[in-house]
Design a protein that fits this description.
alpha/beta
Length: about 250
């Protein structure tokens, strides 16, 4: 029996928000599997760049706020100019705003939606156009959330954006599968990252959350290395429109 290949040698991955946390771990995993990486970040991805170059892969550093959607097509052009092509897109960049829904502001709504949902569509659109022009298909991987399935509390724009990511993933998969483009998403559970600092520091909430996770722990960024390489590789060639939960069993509870 011949196993499907997880080797990404010769591939180029475009990853947003890879300076810290999940994005950094996923970008490094793609490099460890053989891909060169173009990172789009607002701040210096120093650690990611160092780790990627340490495994012998190239790293190209682009700085931008993906919430400024009029810049996205230009960023894709820059990525192609630097790296020669794009084969994989990871829409990881995301922000969160917390407040009671009764007091939530329009700015906090718009800021989150622009980064978490609007940029996902328009960056995917620009990359899909490049993939179609290259004629060899490709992989687009969005980062969803447990709040793609649940309501949550005090995060109305985040919940709305991540629910939108779920639907958008399925829509793009339906339209672009004919071009050999696989569009899927990863839905992280409760992971130890900057976005969950407030929850982890709230003893009551943290205890409640851990009590529901069958694995009995907060997730770690390294837990996403296997899933991202799977969805970026030819091992997932017949996987379209799927939301892969990486949650320690949370959704199965």
């Amino acid at each position: 029996m011949t196993l499907p290949s997880f080797n990404l040698a010769g591939k180029v991955a475009l990853v947003t928000g890879c300076n810290t946390g999940l994005g950094q771990a996923m970008a490094i995993a793609l490099a460890e599997a053989g891909a060169d990486v173009v990172g789009i970040n607002r701040s210096a991805p120093t650690d990611a760049e160092k780790a990627i170059k340490a495994v012998g892969r190239k790293f190209f550093d682009l700085r931008a706020d993906v919430g400024q959607t009029d810049k996205l097509a230009g960023l894709v052009s820059q990525a192609v100019e630097l790296a020669g092509r794009i084969d994989i897109l990871v829409n990881n960049a995301g922000i969160i705003r917390r407040n009671e829904s009764i007091d939530f502001t329009e700015k906090d709504w718009d800021d989150v939606m622009d980064v978490n949902l609007k940029s996902v569509f328009f960056l995917s659109q620009a990359v899909a156009r490049q993939l179609i022009a290259q004629g060899q298909g490709g992989k687009i991987i969005n980062i969803a959330s447990m709040l793609s399935f649940q309501g949550g509390i005090r995060v109305p724009s985040y919940t709305s954006s991540k629910s939108g990511v779920l639907g958008l993933t399925r829509l793009m998969a339906n339209e672009w599968a004919k071009h050999g483009i696989n569009v899927n998403a990863i839905a992280p559970g409760y992971i130890s990252t900057d976005n969950t600092t407030a929850l982890r520091e709230d003893k009551e909430r943290s205890t409640s959350i851990l009590g529901r996770i069958p694995a009995g722990r907060w997730g770690d960024a390294k837990d996403f290395k296997g899933p991202i390489v799977f969805l970026a590789s030819e091992a997932s060639n017949y996987v379209h429109g799927t939301i892969l939960t990486v949650d320690g069993g949370w959704m199965g509870r």
